[in-house]
Specification:
Elements lengths: L26 H6 L25 E3 L5 E3 L1 H14 L1 H7 L10 H7 L3 H15 L9 H19 L17 H39 L2 H13 L1 H6 L6 H15 L9 H17 L7 H10 L7 H26 L1 H12 L8 H29 L3 H12 L3 H13 L4 H29 L6 H10 L6 E3 L3 H6 L8 E3 L2 E3 L5 E3 L5 H8 L5 E4 L5 H13 L3 E9 L5 E8 L9
C-alpha cells in the first residue's frame, strides 16, 4: 500500500519560537512579532550546510512546520555566535583596548635598517668588553663614583674631585659606579654602549627630520661604523654620556622646526646641552653648532623672526642653566674648569700628531660632509639649507655626510642605477666598518694591569702608604685600600687627606722617601719618566728600600713595573 504522506525533498530550516535576543534573526521578523529562522551566516556556511536536529529532536507545530527542541536551539545559537566571533576580534571592539591611529603606529615602529645598524654596532663594540683591564680614566671615574655614593650615604670624607676633574664628578661617575656594582667593569662598559646606541638612534631621528630616511640611513651607518664610535661603546667614561646628551640636544633643537611656537623644544635642548656640558666640560665647543641648528632648521618655514627668537632663547636658557649649576657647585667647580679645560697646560703632544690621529679616525666623515656642502651649493639649494649643512660639516657631524651620500643616489635617474649605487655604498660602509673595528682594536691596546694587581693585592693588605705613577687603576682594583693611602707622581696625599700638588718637582718626593713615608712605590717610567728616574736615584740612596718585584706589562710599547718596598730589617739590595 502506497504511503500518501508526502515528505519534503529537502528538510526545512529550524524554526524557533523564542525572541531573537542575540541578533541572529532579521529585524523585520522581530518587528512583526514572527519567529526568526535560524540561518547561519553565509560567510561561514553554505546553504547546503544548514543545521538540522537529529531525528528525535524535532516536534511538529500546529502549522505543520518542524520546530527545534530547546537543547538543539541552544546548541545552534552557540555555534552561530562562535561564527561571528572572528569579525568582532578583527575589528577590535574590546572596550579595554585603545587603538592607535595608523600614523602613530608608524612613528613608534623602529625601521628595519636602523635595527640592523644598531645590531652591527652593538656586536662590534661588545667584542671589546673584556679586551683589556680598566684604562686609567675608566678606573678613575668608576672609583670616584663609588666614593661619591659613600659620601652621600655615609658621610665619608672624599677627595676634592671637582678641583681636578674635567667633568662634574656627580653626574657620570655615580651612574657608572652603579653599573660597575651590578656587572663589574663589563657592566659599566655596557652602559657606555647603551649611550652610544641611543646616540645612533637620535642621529637617525635628527637626520630624518632634516632630510629624510635615506639620509638618516647613511648618517647612522657611518656613525656606527667608525672607530671612535666602536671604541666609546666599550669605554666606561663620561664621553659616551656627553655625546648622547649632545645628540639629544640637537634632536630637540630641530623638534619644532615647522612650528610657530617651539619654546618647549628649545628649553629641552638647553637642558640637554647644560647636562652635556656638565658631564664633560669640553663638550661646550659644540654648543654653537646646536644653536645654529635651532635657527637654520626653522627656514624656510616659519623662518624670519621665529628663527631668530629661537637663536636667542636657546643660549639664554643654556646660560641660565649653567649659571644655576655653577652656583650649586661652588668655587671648586670653577677651579676644575680652569685647570682641566680653559687653562689646561700643554700635555707635550705635538699638534700635528693630534691632527693626524683625528684625520685617521674621522677622514671618511669629514670628506663626505664637505662633499655634502659642495653638492648643496652646486644644486642651488636655499642659502639657509646650505648654511645648515655647512654648520654640521664644521662639526664633522654625520647628518651632512648622510645628506651627501643620499643626494648622490637621488641624482641618478634610472631605477637600476639607484639600486646599483645603493649596493656600492652599502659595500663601502662594510669596508668602513672593517676599518673602524681595526682602529677600535688599536685604541684598547693600552698596558694591562692584571699582573700588577695580582702582585699588589697581598703586599697592600697589611696597610701602609703607597706611591704609584698612576694610582687610579690600583685604587679601583684594590677596594680594601683607602684613598688616603695612595699618592701619585702628580700629588702627594698627606695624613689629613689633603693633597699636595707637587707640580712634577722631585724634591717633595725625596723628602717623603727619606722620612720613610711610603711603604710601597710602583714606577713604570712611562707617563712621568724623568720624575721616575729622579725618584729611583733617591730610593737607591735611602737605606731600607729595596726592589721586591719586576712586573711585566704589554701594550704598544711593552715594559715593566718596578715595585719598591720599605723593608728596614731586610738586606738593602736595591737595584
Amino acid at each position: 500500500m502506497t504511503n500518501t504522506t508526502t515528505r519534503p525533498t529537502a528538510p526545512e530550516p529550524l524554526v524557533t519560537d523564542a525572541p531573537d535576543t542575540i541578533g541572529l534573526g532579521s529585524a523585520r521578523s522581530q518587528q512583526a512579532g514572527h519567529s526568526a529562522l535560524i540561518s547561519p551566516p553565509q560567510t561561514s556556511r553554505s546553504a547546503s550546510e544548514t543545521i538540522y536536529p537529529p531525528s528525535g529532536a524535532r516536534r511538529a507545530g500546529a502549522d505543520g512546520r518542524v520546530y527545534a527542541s530547546i537543547a538543539h536551539r541552544q546548541a545552534a545559537g552557540l555555534e552561530a555566535l562562535q561564527s561571528l566571533a572572528m569579525p568582532v576580534e578583527a575589528v577590535g571592539l574590546d572596550p579595554g583596548v585603545v587603538e592607535l591611529p595608523a600614523s602613530a603606529r608608524r612613528r613608534l615602529a623602529i625601521p628595519l635598517p636602523l635595527v640592523i645598524i644598531l645590531t652591527v654596532q652593538a656586536v662590534l663594540s661588545a667584542r671589546f668588553f673584556h679586551a683589556n683591564t680598566a684604562f686609567g680614566d675608566e678606573a678613575l671615574y668608576l672609583w670616584a663614583g663609588h666614593l661619591e655614593w659613600s659620601h652621600w650615604l655615609h658621610g665619608m670624607h672624599i677627595p676634592a674631585f671637582p678641583t681636578w676633574f674635567s667633568g662634574s664628578p656627580v653626574i657620570y661617575p655615580p651612574i657608572g659606579a652603579l653599573a660597575d656594582t651590578i656587572g663589574g667593569l663589563a657592566g659599566a662598559r655596557v652602559l657606555s654602549l647603551c649611550f652610544m646606541l641611543g646616540t645612533t638612534c637620535l642621529l637617525w631621528c635628527t637626520a630624518s627630520r632634516l632630510s629624510g630616511r635615506r639620509q638618516a640611513f647613511f648618517a647612522a651607518a657611518l656613525f656606527a661604523a667608525i672607530g671612535p664610535t666602536l671604541h666609546l661603546g666599550a669605554f666606561a667614561t663620561y664621553d659616551s654620556m656627553a655625546l648622547f646628551l649632545l645628540a639629544l640636544a640637537a634632536w630637540c633643537a630641530c623638534g619644532g622646526r615647522t612650528s610657530e611656537d617651539a619654546t618647549g623644544w628649545i628649553i629641552a635642548a638647553a637642558g640637554a646641552l647644560a647636562l652635556a656640558n656638565a658631564a664633560k666640560y669640553a663638550s661646550a665647543i659644540f654648543d654653537p653648532i646646536v644653536v645654529a641648528m635651532a635657527v637654520l632648521s626653522a627656514y624656510p618655514q616659519p623662518g624670519g623672526k621665529v628663527a631668530l627668537r629661537r637663536g636667542a632663547l636657546l643660549p639664554t636658557c643654556l646660560t641660565g642653566a649653567l649659571a644655576i649649576l655653577l652656583r650649586l657647585g661652588g668655587p671648586w667647580y670653577l677651579t676644575g674648569i680652569g685647570l682641566t679645560t680653559t687653562m689646561r697646560p700643554n700635555g707635550g703632544v705635538p699638534i700635528a700628531l693630534v691632527l693626524a690621529d683625528s684625520w685617521q679616525w674621522t677622514a671618511v666623515v669629514v670628506v663626505t660632509a664637505l662633499a655634502g656642502v659642495a653638492l648643496s651649493i652646486l644644486k642651488g639649494n636655499a642659502r639657509s639649507r646650505t648654511l645648515l649643512i655647512a654648520a654640521l660639516a664644521a662639526a664633522a657631524l654625520l647628518v651632512a655626510a648622510g645628506w651627501a651620500l643620499s643626494r648622490l643616489v637621488a641624482w641618478l635617474r634610472p631605477r637600476y642605477a639607484k639600486i646599483m649605487a645603493m649596493t656600492c655604498l652599502c659595500a663601502a660602509l662594510i669596508a668602513v666598518a672593517a676599518t673602524g673595528s681595526s682602529q677600535a682594536q688599536e685604541m684598547v691596546n693600552w698596558p694591562g694591569a692584571a699582573n700588577l694587581i695580582a702582585f699588589l693585592r697581598p703586599v697592600t693588605s697589611n696597610g701602609g702608604r703607597f706611591l704609584a705613577e698612576t694610582d687610579d687603576v690600583p685604587e679601583y682594583y684594590l677596594p680594601q685600600t683607602s684613598w688616603r693611602q695612595w699618592s701619585n707622581t702628580f700629588s702627594i696625599t698627606l695624613p689629613n687627606g689633603q693633597q699636595e700638588n707637587v707640580g712634577g718637582r722631585p724634591a717633595p718626593y725625596a723628602r717623603a722617601i727619606r722620612q720613610h713615608y711610603f711603604s710601597l712605590i710602583i714606577l713604570s717610567f712611562s707617563e712621568t719618566a724623568a720624575l721616575d728616574h729622579a725618584i729611583t736615584r733617591v730610593l737607591r740612596a735611602t737605606p731600607g728600600y729595596r726592589v721586591i718585584g719586576i712586573v711585566p706589562y704589554g701594550g704598544p710599547v711593552p715594559g715593566n713595573y718596578t715595585v719598591w718596598a720599605y723593608r728596614p730589617h731586610a738586606q738593602h739590595g736595591a737595584t
